[in-house]
Structure formats: C-alpha cells, structure tokens
Amino acid sequence: xxxxxxxxxxxxxxxxxxxxxxxxxxxxxxxxxxxxxxxxxxxxxxxxxxxxxxxxxxxxxxxxxxxxxxxxxxxxxxxxxxxxxxxxxxxxxxxxxxxxxxxxxxxxxxxxxxxxxxxxxxxxxxxxxxxxxxxxxxxxxxxxxxxxxxxxxxxxxxxxxxxxxxxxxxxxxxxxxxxxxxxxxxxxxxxxxxxxxxxxxxxxxxxxxxxxxxxxxxxxxxxxxxxxxxxxxxxxxxxxxxxxxxxxxxxxxxxxxxxxxxxxxxxxxxxxxxxxxxxxx
Length: 281
Ligand SMILES: Nc1ncnc2c1ncn2[C@@H]1O[C@H](COP(=O)(O)OP(=O)(O)OP(=O)(O)O)[C@@H](O)[C@H]1O
Prior knowledge:
Number of helices: 8
CATH superfamily of the largest domain: P-loop containing nucleotide triphosphate hydrolases
Protein name: Taurine-transporting ATPase
EC number: 3.6.3.36
Keywords: ATP-binding, Hydrolase, Nucleotide-binding, Transport
Largest sheet: 6 strands, mixed
Domain ABC transporter: 4-237
GO molecular function, one term: ATP binding
CATH architecture of the largest domain: 3-Layer(aba) Sandwich
Structural class: alpha/beta
Number of strands: 10
Helix content: 25-40%
Radius of gyration: 21 Å
Mean pLDDT: 90
Bound molecules: adenosine-5'-triphosphate
Strand order of the largest sheet: 6-7-8-3-9-10
Order of helices and strands: EEEHEEEHHHEHEHEEHH
C-alpha cells in the first residue's frame, strides 16, 4: 500500500458554463520515506494539488488516500509549508510556532513544548526575533517561521508548496539542508512542489512534472540517481546530475512550447485614462 495515493483525481472550479477543470486524472503514488518533487509551471494547479492532499479541498472525482484511508479535512500528520506563510499577525514568532506544537502534542508539558519551539526557531536562525510579531519581520523571515512551525509539529508527511521561493540563495540552501536533515533523520515522507528544477534534483528521489493547465496532468517521472547526502558544491561535476537535469529541462521546454502554441489570442489593453490623472502630467 502506498503511503500517499491519488487515484484518477480531477478538480474543477466553478459551475456549468463557468467551470474550469484545473487538474485532470492525476495518478500518483508515494511510498513511505520517499522524497518526491513535483515541478510545474506557474498557474498549472500546484497549490490546488497541495490543497487536495492536505484535505483543504475535495476532488471533483477520484480519490486521495493517506496510508490507505481517504483524506477528509486537514490533519497535523500532514504538515504543510505554504507559499504565503500564513502566520497569525497578532502572535509573536514564539506564539505562532507554540500554538501549532500544542495542537500536535497536547500531552507535552510546558517545558517540553518550550524546548521544542525554541529549538526549531533556532534551527531557522530566528532566535533573535523570537518575540517579534510578523509585521516586524521581512518576507523571508516570515517564511522561516512558517518552516519552523510546520517542522516542529513533526508531521508524518511534510508537504511543501514552493516554500523557499522568496528567500535569498544562502537562506534557501540552509533551509533545504535542514528539511533534508529532518526528513532523513526522522524517516519522514516528503512532497515538494517547486518550479525550480535544481531544488528538485538536490532534494528529491523522483521528480514528476505537472503539465501546464487547464486539465493539467502529471508527466513521466525522472528518478534522481545521486547518492545521499548530496553535496551541492559537487553536483555540477556529477554526470548523473547533468544528464538528469538536461532531460528534465528538455521535457519542460517541449511541453512549454506546446503551451505557447495552444493560444494565439492577442489581448488588447483598453485605451482609457482615469479622470483623476487627466492634466496631472
Ligand atoms: N478557489 C478557486 N476558484 C476558482 N479558480 C481557482 C481557485 N483556486 C485556483 N483557481 C484557478 O486554478 C488554476 C490553478 O491555480 P493554482 O493556484 O492551483 O496554481 P499554481 O500552479 O499553484 O499557481 P502559482 O504557480 O501561480 O502559485 C488557476 O487558473 C486559478 O485561477
């Protein structure tokens, strides 16, 4: 039995004439302990896929199974690191992480919870900002709180929706390594949604492209046959890395070209000037 399985999953938004089938016949199996990356184009339905797996939305048809059981609603067993960090603005960094930890570990003592929260905030390099509120943090710092919050809950499966996109290269690299540490040390299962092929190759066992939408489906998988732990500084000399990267990029470029050729529509912008601007220049 697969740890996570999607069987013929389709998702349509809207009703009748006004509807769009965003995802079409998605079939995916992830085994326990695997790290799978889905690489997709912008707007292809990546977040929709994450929300289906997380239980935030239901498929229009098909099934999402977690450990053999249909996914109904969210669960802290599946920890999601969202793209938009979704922190509670009135809580401090500590409180944002602690709230999630308390929910995941209701039987832990106050001291145990404090230790857990503090150690994960330290891991993401935010000890100095532990009592700050989200509005006092940069976008990258908020994203790091969101990573700490998801990982501190020790989810059985870590689901990441383009979690590191807003970060600088150094912070991004550090967090990739922290996520990999936790995944391998705690024997987790992980799904990473990204538009960065290099990030996918560095982190995952398999990469599966999500074709452009509407009616996005999954493309053929690419196995990443590079020994772990992987050394970023040596990847550029690794023949497996070079070959796999070239194959994935060629595939994505080919399906990207098809997408371009689907639409020849020209969009003409309206020729209007707001009244308040007239005479200002
Ligand atoms: N709740 C919704 N109602 C209607 N349409 C939606 C809804 N959510 C998403 N969509 C549409 O579904 C399509 C896929 O959106 P989604 O956010 O899943 O894509 P994405 O690949 O995550 O995008 P991005 O790369 O920009 O983050 C888009 O055309 C979007 O407008």
